[in-house]
Please model this.
Amino acid sequence: MQTESNSTTEPSEQPITQSPSQTLLNLPTPPRVKRYLAGCLGLTLVGCMLCMVIYVIFPPAPTDIVILGVDARPGQGYLTRTDSVMILNVSPVNDVSLLSIPRDVFIQVPDYGEQRINTINMLGEQEEVGGGLRLIKASLDESFSIEIENYIRLDFNGFVAVVDAVGGVDIDVPKLIIDYDYPTIEGGIITVQFDPGTEHMDGERALQYARTRHQDSDYDRAARQQQVVDAVVAKLVSPQGVIYIPKVWQAINAYTQTDLNLWDMMQMGPALVLGWSGHTHRVLMQDDLIGMRAGYWIPAYESLQPWIDDHFD
Model:
């Protein structure tokens, strides 16, 4: 048990600590930067209008994107396990689709056999830098016949920064959640609690909501992660979403790794705007899995494949 300190340190002598996203968003904005951001906003508006015209005349090909949230501690980089794995399909023809695979599910991995999906990134990175991305792409192709075109890989700082860049998100918490053993990035534990009802969450709070799992299960956690992604994208594709794009792009550049450039995102923009409100989302639950004798779960490929073929390319 910790006790309150009797230190008489003056307030000016106490260290001030901020998360990277707080530093990113709270720094004073000089006039020159304001003009730059205003120019970016204007160009973004023009670009969005142009993209809509091009989209109608020359609709882009469907795109499958894997989104990896890595469980990285300071100094680890990307040589670590993944905390979340999502596959996003953006198509001008079909509905936008989002599939989450819980971290404890085993899938087929080239040259490794069946492996827990949250270890694939680390296995590949141990071979070579960037190998985790190649191995997860090859594994999703071998297991589900999904050819991944693009990737987004981010750590906890990236998650927090993107949520803060859209001004936080409103999340409908379906039940009371109390986690007495929530792990901190420093290696300790704290208690976090979420009461039922709608809560406005900044990036740090949304990260806690997306990561907690001690009260229920990894399947529920995957569903919460989808809730946060849904809330972020919903704000971006809303009529006022264009005002968030400069800061979101700044956060992506600073804290995430992706092979998508700004033009790629603008090309996908119309499909997301038109299709996100009716998008299809799914989390692999226990009904979608087969229990193995060794005590692990694999996807029920035969029953899942028709749905995957309908929603991914």
